[in-house]
Amino acid sequence: MIGICSYGTYVPIYRIKIDEIARVWGEDCDAIKNGLGIYEKSVPDEDEDATTIAVEAAREAVSRVKIDPKEIGAIFVGSESHPYAVKPTSTIVGEALGVGNNYFTADLEFACKAGTAAMQICYAMVKAEMIKFGLAIGTDTAQAKPGDALEYSAAAGGAAFLIGKDPIAEIEATYSYTSDTPDFWRRELQPYPSHGGRFTGEPAYFRHIVNAAKGLMEKFGYSSKDFKYAVFHQPNAKFPLKVAKMLGFGGEQTSQSLLVSVIGNTYSASSLIGLCAVLDVAEPDERILLVSFGSGAGSDAFSIRVTDRIIDFPREPKVWDKVSKKIYIDYALYLKHRGKIRI
Amino acid sequence: MIPSFWRKIKYRYDLIGTHCKKCGRYYYPPRNLCPRCRRKGEIEEVKLPEKGKVLSYTVVYERCPVVIALIELENGTKILSQLSCKPEEVKDGMEVVRVFRKYGETSDDGIIYYGTKFVPCY
Ligand SMILES: [Zn+2]
Q1: Where are the domains of chain A?
Q2: pLDDT at A199
Q3: CATH for A2-337, options being 1.10.1200.10, 3.10.200.10, 3.40.710.10, 3.40.47.10
Q4: Between the CA atoms of A271, A292, A118 and A10, what dihedral angle is there, to the nearest 10 degrees?
Q5: B114 in contact with A, Cβ within 8 Å
Q6: In this predicted model, what pLDDT tens digit does every residue of A111-167 receive, in sequence order?
Q7: What is the pLDDT of residue B62?
Q8: Do B82 and B120 have their domain in common?
Q9: Which of B21 and B122 is assigned the larger pLDDT?
Q10: Taking Cα atoms as reference points, which of A40, A331, A44 lies closest to residue B84?
Q11: Facing residue for A47 by CB, picked from B9, B10, B84
């Protein structure tokens, strides 16, 4: 049995309210909040980036199980905000965790789904008996051009999963749906991403998530009733609720994972932090559907079944409690934190 | 600059200090020789506790205020470190925990330096 042996999350302590961003750009904050279902988003400190967030999430994951970090045989870090264009994030994470020098590693990039791709690779390597434990991380400090619609949602956070045998949650099945769909991109040397506006909806988010989820359920014989929880990528609060409805899931299955309203879209970590919030409360034998979405475009779907091992697993502090601790900053400090003030 | 930082990565990325088995003292940054026991000392590398409390602090005002604190770790080791928080948050006796943060970067096309800092236990 292979799956998640431990998990950890990290969301920076700072928040900016949607009202504050809207005030600066003279936009109608109620219309934006109603449109996106987002009220505030996380902001990294000046000395935080996707690497430091990855290390913090990974440290929580490793600290929750009694393993020697040297037993970790692979690290894959998925992000669209790797601090270096050339020079891996994953080697910095490996060094900070003290995993030694014998591990398989690479950085992954697939917009918001690189973290679930990391989980699939670790799962396959454990199954092939190449490694004992693999560390799969999704981390981002998402950038948005000041004044762009993305600025209301682009946030920062990370989640890390230790994949191995005898898990607290078994990965029963995984299935992907991928196509060449240019809904969101960033060219070399460009500081901010560009997007296809409304094109990011139907042909991108909804088509890929629906096909990945349906493909998984058809291939492995599940229906929406088999899942106690459903976790989807959360670019805003509206999309995951709509796609849940399209797939036959109700609010009672999705609410525990919907953190986007209070932390924003954490990109590669978005669906993964949602999964961690579910693992915080899930009971043995409950089944979780996880479906990520990455622009460009693709979705990775997973059927995850919680095992008896979760009973003795240390789950404190829980994700919802951690994100309730926050410090609000104004737009000027937000610009400073994001390195947008050049002196 | 790169080689001198690279050699210390292990000690900067985490709180890896040294311990003298002879007199029981801990050192961070690590020392190769126990200054008290000299040649009779027996030095070993150890991972120091992650939590501690602020004994004293100062705020350095350069371009942005930087909080530097003398921190006593749970095992009594005293270390000097940057506290990553706003100057108005810091208090004597405050509980702090080690984090992994950016120290800085040489330039837009240079190396990014990472290492250990502390933050308040929120
Ligand atoms: Zn000594």
Answers
A1: 2-337
A2: 83
A3: 3.40.47.10
A4: -10
A5: yes
A6: 999 999 999 999 999 999 999 999 999 999 999 999 999 999 999 999 999 999 999
A7: 81
A8: yes
A9: B21
A10: A44
A11: B84
As a three-state string, the secondary structure of A127-139 is HCCCCCEEEEEEE
Flag whether residue B107 sits within 8 Å of chain A, measured between CB atoms. Answer: no
pLDDT of residue B74: 96
Annotated catalytic residue, options A112, A170, A208, A337? A112
Task: Determine the Cα–Cα distance for residues A232 and A299; give it in Å rounded to an integer.
Answer: 10
CA of B20 to the centre of ligand 1 (A): 5
Q: Report yes or no: B62 at the A interface, CB cutoff 8 Å.
A: no
**pLDDT tens column, B56-107:** 999 999 878 999 999 999 999 999 999 999 999 999 999 999 999 999 988 8
Cα–Cα dist A237/B121, whole Å: 30
pTM over 0.95: yes
Q: Is A80 a catalytic residue?
A: yes
Question: Mind telling me how many Å the CA of A161 is from chain B's nearest CA?
Answer: 18
Angle at the Cα of A161 from the Cα atoms of A179 and A226, rounded to 5 degrees: 65
Residues in A whose CB is inside 8 Å of some CB of B read 13, 45-49, 51-52, 55-56, 59, 83-84, 92, 95-96, 98, 325, 343
Q: How far is residue A153's CA from residue A194's CA, in Å, rounded to a whole number?
A: 14
pLDDT, averaged across chain A = 97
